[in-house]
Specification:
single chain; 480 residues; alpha+beta; 9-stranded mixed β-sheet; 12 helices; 22 strands
């Protein structure tokens, strides 16, 4: 890759802006502004492997692509034949490297650069791909991309002007992130209203409402599929329209829901959404479910896939499917066998725990000795006999402090267990005591030759998996 050093001021400005604002040296990998924004709107960690981003500018009929940082003072550049080939290059490279299918590919014209005579000399584009998201989540990713496009279209022409030296480059990065995140939320709400006629503010208001002092813990299903659910239906005169004026009444009927039951919402001939009854059977893949799990906390699910959750004023993209896949891969590596369906169900159910929890899975031959040692030296509750806990009790046993300890078949040996460990680690303040205690414990088991996995489900909906088979020499596992 060649870096051109003699350039018009417009291109120097653009390169400096790319390096100091759109990219960053804050972490071990090149953290782009896009990655920084996505880290604020997804419920799990994001790495450089999830994103491929570049700015492409036109010069004398050719295209030059900025697609990475070469050093503290330069940006890597390479010539490409066309915008389309640039996009295809990213897609092919990332697909082969990460075995992930890109669900969102974008390339946009964002402005032009001017020469010293203030004349247009070439166009500027951006191109990026976002990998590893469920297809159904693209409605929020698309909203983010539109907000990002609006911002770049506004700012890039100011940067790429040879008559102006851009001096404030990179100083307002946090404000940029907040601005784009807020705009993303607005666009997403507009899309839901325009595509489905669903006002998300009503769902939020319901989640913040009480009924006789109780918080809402219920679900609504907006019927889009063709199947007819079974349940208890209201008379036509008692249908409740989903609108702000009826929030109190909607909150009241939601109190009927128990377990997996939900209030069915259907459209009438005037396209108004009406709450029509209480149902409990499986809904269609196109139906939209809103599950309210706590005060000002709800999740939107389309079919069997989670899409977006809302918690305390912020939207998050839920990546439950991706994390379940990661769990199965890590389990296979640790125990040299596939996780059974019961363990997959436990993982799914634990993700719904609003208070956060942790689960330790240990090799069958070592788990009894570990339980005896841990319960003798700290605290916890032994489970007798050791069984696969019925699924309806999983939320309950994961609701108290301490770890749930299972063997590799899913038999539970103890709950509420306080973990120990002698291994030295560099604690991560951002993750808190639960994360660091699991990390210390699993590293100790690694040192002792015991195979195991630690799964941390945090209150902010992030999920972290730690295995005795991890590379403990890597920077994220560096010892003090």
């Amino acid at each position: 890759m060649n870096t051109i050093t003699t350039e018009p001021k417009a291109i120097l400005n653009l390169r400096k802006y790319y390096k100091d604002c759109l990219q960053s040296h804050e972490s071990s990998y090149s953290c782009s502004l896009i990655a920084a924004i996505l880290s604020n709107i997804i419920d799990n960690e994001i790495t450089a492997k999830n994103i491929s981003f570049a700015i492409i500018y036109e010069k004398a009929g050719n295209y030059v692509c900025m697609d990475g940082i070469g050093s503290e003072s330069t940006v890597q550049e390479r010539p490409i034949d066309s915008i389309e080939k640039g996009v295809q290059y990213f897609k092919n490279t990332e697909d082969k490297k990460n075995q992930l299918v890109s669900t969102c590919n974008y390339h946009r014209l964002i402005g032009s650069w001017l020469d010293e005579n203030n004349e247009v000399r070439g166009k500027i584009y951006y191109s990026f791909c976002i990998y590893g998201f469920d297809e159904i989540q693209t409605i929020y990713i698309n909203s983010f991309e539109e907000a990002y496009y609006e911002w770049t279209k506004e700012i890039i022409p100011q940067v790429a002007n040879s008559l102006v030296e851009y001096k404030e480059i990179g100083k307002k990065r946090k404000n940029i992130i907040n601005k784009i995140c807020k705009r993303t939320e607005i666009i997403f709400e507009e899309k839901m209203l325009n595509f489905y006629g669903i006002d998300l503010n009503i769902i939020t208001d319901i989640s913040g409402s009480y009924y006789e002092g109780a918080k809402c813990n219920s679900a609504l299903v907006f019927k889009i599929g063709s199947s007819r659910p079974k349940g208890v239906f209201f008379s036509e005169k008692d249908h409740v329209e989903v609108k702000k004026e009826n929030i109190k009444n909607l909150r009241k009927i939601l109190e009927m829901c128990q377990g997996n039951q939900f209030i069915l919402v259907e459209r009438d001939s005037n396209l108004k959404w009406l709450a029509k009854g209480l149902c409990d059977n499986i809904f269609d893949t196109n139906d939209i479910l809103f599950r309210i799990t706590d005060h000002m906390f709800w999740e939107m699910q389309i079919g069997n896939r989670f899409s977006v959750c809302y918690k305390y004023g912020k939207y998050k993209i839920s990546q439950a499917t991706k994390k379940l896949k990661e769990f199965k891969e890590i389990y296979n590596k640790a125990f040299c066998k596939k996780a059974n369906h019961y363990l997959e169900n436990v993982f799914d159910l634990a993700m719904a725990q609003p208070h956060g929890t942790c689960i330790i899975i240990l090799d069958n031959g070592a788990v009894k000795g570990e339980i005896n040692r841990l319960l003798a030296s700290s605290s916890g509750i032994a489970v007798t006999p050791e069984i696969q806990i019925p699924k309806r009790f999983i939320l309950g046993i994961t609701s108290i402090d301490g770890a749930v300890i299972m063997d590799s078949c899913g038999k539970c040996y103890a709950i509420g267990t306080i973990l120990d460990g002698s291994a030295e680690i560099v604690g991560e303040r951002a993750h808190g005591a639960r994360h660091n205690s699991v990390m210390r414990y699993i590293k100790t088991k690694h040192n002792e030759g015991i195979k195991g996995i630690g799964i941390i489900f945090s209150e902010d909906r992030t999920i972290k998996l730690i295995s005795t088979e991890d590379d403990w020499e890597a920077p994220e596992h560096e010892c003090e």
